[in-house]
Amino acid sequence: MDENNLQDNARMENYSTEEIRRITGCSKQTAKRWQSGQHKPPAAALAMMRLFIDGDLSALIGPDWQGFIARDGNLYVPGWTRGFKPDEIRAMFYGVQLSSSLKREHDKLRAEIDAQQKTLADIIRQRDFYRSNLVLESKMGLALTKS
């Protein structure tokens, strides 16, 4: 038996038959067999125990969630000492969505400003061209009238 199974069996021994039944939905006899070590609990039952007793989210949704704990209505994340309440998670999610939306709007406006600046630069080039031609034509006109 590997170390994880030993830990899971020890967990089964540490909890009452009723707790095991409530969490896993098994019969009283099955819970007693798991507690005594007569039968190995299925992986799903062990995952449910880890989730409900320890709050270990990786037990249910995979190893990427290692260290994430759900306990007392809060979500604890690795490296953070205080758990997040559901309304805090919703507020963070809203903030991320708002930030993403504002970034898209910023990028759109930046592209529009860049296009307007290009148009303005083209207009200034045209103005300068026509101005220089006007000056040249004026000088030519003066030269023609003096002769």
Write the layout of secondary structure elements.
Layout: H1 3-14, H2 17-24, H3 28-36, H4 43-54, H5 58-61, E1 69-71, E2 74-76, H6 86-146
Antiparallel strand pairs: 1-2
Helix pairs in contact: 1-3, 2-3
Structure description:
The chain has 147 residues and is mainly alpha-helical. Helices cover 72% and strands 4% of the residues. The protein is built from 6 helices and 2 strands. The chain has helices at residues 3-14, 17-24, 28-36, 43-54, 58-61, 86-146; strands at residues 69-71, 74-76. Strands 1-2 form a two-stranded antiparallel ribbon. The longest helix has 61 residues, at 86-146.
Q: What would the keywords be for this entry?
A:
72% helix, single chain, 6 helices, 147 residues, mainly alpha, two-stranded antiparallel sheet
